[in-house]
Write the structure tokens for this entry.
Amino acid sequence: NMSKFKAIILNQDGEKFTREVKEIDKSFLKHGNVVVKIDYSSLNYKDGMILKNGGKLVKEYPHIPGIDFAGTVEESESPNFKNGDKVILTGWRVGEIYFGGYAQYAKVQDNFLVKLPKDLDTKKAMILGTAGLTALMCVLIIQARETILKGEPIKDVLVTGATGGVGSVAVLALSKLGYIVSAVTGKKDKSEFLKSIGAKNIIDRSELDQEARPLDKALYDGVVDTVGGKILAKALSHTRPNGMVAACGLASSYKLDTTVMPFIIRGIKLWGVDSVTAPIIRRQFLWSQATTYVDFEKLSKGVSIWGLQDIISSSSKILKGDISGRVLVDVNK
Ligand code: NDP
């Protein structure tokens, strides 16, 4: 049972920042009312920032990082969860101000948890993880032109940071909807991977990483942007009238230097995405739709499985954009 378990512990002592896998005691867990035995976590961009130096997100040390997890309820003081329930956690600043998922156990607030839908398992849930959930939020925004907005059909779409976690799930889901996906990547050797998950056209990042004109050739009905900066400004200038642009990331830059022209001349919608505080009802909906939007067989080919020790040695790769596809973290490896 869980009197002792393994976790990544971050610590900061003056200038010295440390990360190590430690055996810790159950009594160390302090937040929340539901104890979850974790099967899997995952590696997201934000995890890379937190593992590096706390990323200005962690307020107290010692700390357990890991912004998402899936597992089984083992102790519950909540009327909404009972022992044996399979659950998913993403966001809510778990892994930042609360202890996170890079551990064999976590204790969290019941209102952070989503019950695992019947057609998923904990592994599939974390193959998607925070990045995948965010990608689905972006995809639904593009699709919204056809669904809730009763607008013109979507045909051509652009995904930036396409080999990344959010990007690769977006490519997969958009292509499954029948859209023609153009994938922007900085990785010249990943064209085959991108095509295997549904990209039709591959665009070299350097082509878009340039100063944008206010309006340029109209090419895309929808954009999923995970990188921000010049690339997002350029994507806006290439969006067709009434296009949908979902912005969720800053892998290139948090800045956005654009003009009002795409918005007032072409009626383009720039729709910001935040998965951290998304309401539970939306999360339940998105997780219940996961197998409709995602072909797990295709996605699995781009998944690497790491243990906690691998996170310590290699998580910095995600900040350099050196990872393609998703990293699943087996906390019991
Ligand atoms: P990844 O590192 O897996 O993906 C980012 C990808 O962006 C990289 O793989 C790379 O793809 C590309 N990239 C990296 N550096 C640069 C650069 N300097 N310029 C242009 N492109 C670059 O991260 P995630 O998928 O986990 O996250 C992507 C972004 O989305 C992050 O900024 C993250 O913080 C954000 N995010 C936001 C969420 C929200 O709720 N708003 C939730 C989840 C993530 P390639 O080599 O193919 O170009």
